[in-house]
Specification:
single chain; 6 helices; two-stranded antiparallel ribbon; disordered C terminus; mainly alpha
């Protein structure tokens, strides 16, 4: 630790019981896991809670829906959502614009079409999972949890593989499937 920092006390975000009532109300969906969150995640949520009163009612409702959906995700689903978010951030502006356009088009679809796309994405994910594992008997698809939105193909944002003397086979698909991490479920 640098000498200048030696006298500065480390300030950690408060436990749930030490949060002011207004922040507890805003962050209520996170109450059950607040005390187990890492400090940096608590700080991010507290920053959102600080901005919350200035948000429009629609933005506030969206934040609440997203928090409720987030706490329902398993640790693996959260990790996957974070990785997908990172991939989107690495995408070029044109690729991100294409994703926004695809998302806008998806949102305008009727509920029946959204449901059909969700089911199709779940079947596709199940068949990919069973093809990867190879341990299931033929005709027995993997149990797949339907995603919140249909899978969308993200243009490749991965670095080019290193050149080798022996050519490697092409990847099974041209780009990873992308599922918007904070999508709102439709009923």
């Amino acid at each position: 630790m640098a000498p200048a920092m030696a006298g500065v006390p480390l300030v950690l975000p408060p436990d749930w019981s030490a949060l002011p009532p207004q922040k507890q109300q805003i962050l209520a969906p996170l109450s059950g896991e607040w005390d187990q969150l890492e400090s940096y995640r608590k700080k991010k949520w507290l920053e959102i809670a600080d901005r919350y009163p200035q948000m429009s009612p629609d933005e506030q409702a969206r934040i609440q829906r997203r928090m409720k959906a987030w706490v329902k995700l398993t640790p693996e689903e959260r990790k996957a959502a974070r990785e997908k978010y990172k991939n989107v951030q690495k995408a070029s502006p044109e690729q991100r614009e294409a994703l926004k356009r695809m998302w806008s088009e998806y949102q305008t679809l009727p509920d029946e079409e959204k449901q059909r796309l969700k089911e199709s994405a779940a079947k596709s994910a199940a068949s990919k999972a069973s093809a990867k594992s190879g341990s299931r008997p033929p005709g027995k698809p993997a149990a797949a949890k339907p995603s919140l939105v249909p899978a969308m193909t993200l243009p490749s944002v991965q670095p080019e593989p290193a050149t080798t003397t022996t050519p490697s086979p092409p990847p099974p698909s041209p780009a990873p499937a992308f599922v918007w991490p904070f999508a709102e479920p439709t009923h």
